[in-house]
């Protein structure tokens, strides 16, 4: 690779990084954890046929509870 | 427009996934998605050209840029669903039943034309792995002249979405792709450091073999 290309590629990658950072910056930061459930009403079912669940992880559990229990780092 | 099905009560958030809810104001030259966000239609040529330019600039730039952009969009998607649900007086996204939450993700993929997504939690409880399969992938179809993994954007989108729901910093990689001869595109989501251990085998081993390494 020529020195010109090295410089050009580095600048292109820097540009892409800036672009991605700008997209990320334009996205409001979500809270680290979901807020507690509303006590006003039980969670209604919002979808028609639900996704195929994995039996050990379902049983009416909320999405946040399920995903917080997953041993990601094992 | 077909009449509503009386046996299937209208769900408050269904309009977000209804392709008929995209509005076109031809006089103003404005198209908005069901959430009210202005959008444009990207042609195959646009996507191919962007891929070509970034790939020519430097190998890996396309993957990096699309993955990072997808991650931001995935978090934005989850946040948007969360806000809309709360606005309607419904539980926050993470407090919805698991099936409902994953259903939103899968319907979003389909509604935006990214393909048919299926999330599989079979290996989640014991191995800390979430897998997702994508058929009819937009990128795999459009980037017909590449033999590389074609879906860094959906991978980033899954990463961002599951980071929001779990509150954890996660990674997501595509471990099988139609463009590389697989019958469907497959992604795995888990801790970033675990994904790094299988990076040398991506594209060299099947999805099943890579998952076996992660489970070992």
Order of helices and strands of chain A: HH
- The percentage of residues in β strands of chain B lies in 5-15%
Helical content of chain A stands at 40-55%
CATH homologous superfamily designation of chain B? Trafficking protein particle complex subunit 3
Report, as a whole number of angstroms, the end-to-end distance of chain A.
42 Å
Series of H and E elements of chain B: EEEHHHEHEHHEEHH
Main beta sheet of chain B: 4 strands, antiparallel
Shape of chain B: globular
- The rough form of chain A would be described as elongated
Explain what this protein looks like in three dimensions.
The complex is a heterodimer of chains A (74) and B (216). Chain A has a domain of 29 residues. In chain A, 41% of the residues lie in helices and 0% in strands. By secondary structure, chain A is mostly helical. Chain B is α+β, with helices and mostly antiparallel strands and 216 residues long. Chain B has a single domain, classed as 2-Layer Sandwich (Muramoyl-pentapeptide Carboxypeptidase, domain 2), CATH 3.30.1380. Helices cover 44% and strands 14% of the residues of chain B. Chain B contains 8 helices and 7 strands, in the order βββαααβαβααββαα. Chain B has a 4-stranded antiparallel beta sheet with strand order 4-5-7-6, sandwiched between helices. In chain B, a hairpin with an 8-residue loop joins strand 6 and strand 7. Chain B is globular. The N terminus of chain B is likely disordered. Classes of the chains: A mainly alpha (74), B alpha+beta (216). At the A-B interface, helix 1 and helix 2 of A face helix 2, helix 3, strand 4, helix 4 and helix 6 of B.
